[in-house]
Amino acid sequence: MSNGAVVGNVKILTVALGAGRAGFLPTFNGNCRRCRRSAERLARSPRAMLDSPHIVRTDIHRKNNHLVHASARITVSPRAGCGAGCSDVFPEIRHMNRSMLSPVRRAAAALFVLGLVPVSHAAQPTLRVGIDAESYPPFFSKDAAGKWKGWEIDLLDAACGKLNVRCELTDIAWDGLIPALQNRKIDVIWSSMTITGERQKAIDFSRAYYESPTVFVGAKSDRRRVDCAVPATFKGRVIGVEAGTNFSAFLDARFKQDAQIKAFDKFDNALADLVSGRVDYVQEGKGLFTAFLASRDGKDFEIKATCADNPVLGLGIGAGLRRGDALRDKLSTAIAQLQQDGTWDAITARYPNLKGSIEKGR
């Protein structure tokens, strides 16, 4: 039997050792870095408890040890190096019956499985999140200090808060995101990745956290009327698209006979060729054109055609996860809550240029 209580910033758990036996009470000073390291290390490896030099044994009367509670209880803590802060946290050491140490130590491993770490410094699980190394403002981009920012980053932070995890972003080239997930280098892909049948053969997806129609952008001065449903209206034109995307697959399947498809390694490079006149149109999700159309370079361009829903173009934008990962359902629930409790709308309101470009996923 075990029970727990919180005293100050310390989590206290005791375990029954049998009739007439005392309980076991580990304590840590949450303000001491060495204490925290010991707690985290022992929590990860319960067997290390039995041989740890931090277990107080015969010298429990030393005042630089932290514990000090009733007899037959033991503390796990560094013996020195904590500074005055540690000795001030707990009362003076009381006498411990040395004959009680063996059964107490045998109970230690079981207690650490329960996660004996200071409550205020309990380590949150870390979720390793992969994101495209290329910037797509206002969805995600790095500021001058190299920190990620944007609508998608804000939504990710909110989702991680719902899951009570710490999210750690790793930027990876687009083509490397799915392999990195499959090879367990990351746990989640959060990078405006469209949910498509082809990708679902390799990975799972969460609920869509946003949707954005597929559009063609071209020069305002171009008077030709084009229609996504009629590829022949693009006959003789050059269409730019980012390689390896669902948009590229869509164009290859439907437009190759009528138009020249020019694939780019980066979306920004496709836009550069659009501005310079080397391509006539660029196809992408409407939301990703937001920053460009609001910029000086994009002032002479506009949306020329919008595509209807199509399986190749996908079922919205979702988080990619490994096949069968239970995290999918948890993340989908968190996303649904954000879409229903007003958080999604509040975050989107911070980015007025996105109005009309994205909507909640399904």
Question: What would a concise description of this structure say?
Answer:
With 362 residues, the protein is of the alpha/beta class. Helix content is 28%, strand content 17%. It has helices spanning 33-44, 48-51, 84-89, 101-113, 151-163, 177-182, 197-200, 246-254, 267-276, 290-293, 327-340, 343-349; strands at residues 2-7, 10-15, 126-132, 141-142, 148-149, 166-172, 188-189, 204-205, 214-219, 238-242, 260-264, 281-285, 301-306, 320-321.
Mean pLDDT: 77
H/E element sequence: EEHHHHEEEHEHEHEEEHEHEHEEHH
Which outline best applies? globular
Low-confidence stretches: 1-29, 46-121
Q: How would a crystallographer describe the biggest sheet?
A: 5 strands, mixed
Helix content: 25-40%
Computed Rg? 29 Å
Provide the spatial order of strands within the biggest beta sheet: 11-10-12-9-13
Number of strands: 14
Distance between the termini: 45 Å
Walk me through the topology.
Elements: E1 2-7, E2 10-15, H1 33-44, H2 48-51, H3 84-89, H4 101-113, E3 126-132, E4 141-142, E5 148-149, H5 151-163, E6 166-172, H6 177-182, E7 188-189, H7 197-200, E8 204-205, E9 214-219, E10 238-242, H8 246-254, E11 260-264, H9 267-276, E12 281-285, H10 290-293, E13 301-306, E14 320-321, H11 327-340, H12 343-349
Parallel strand pairs: 3-6, 3-7, 10-11, 10-12
Antiparallel strand pairs: 1-2, 4-5, 8-14, 9-12, 9-13
Helix pairs in contact: 5-11, 5-12
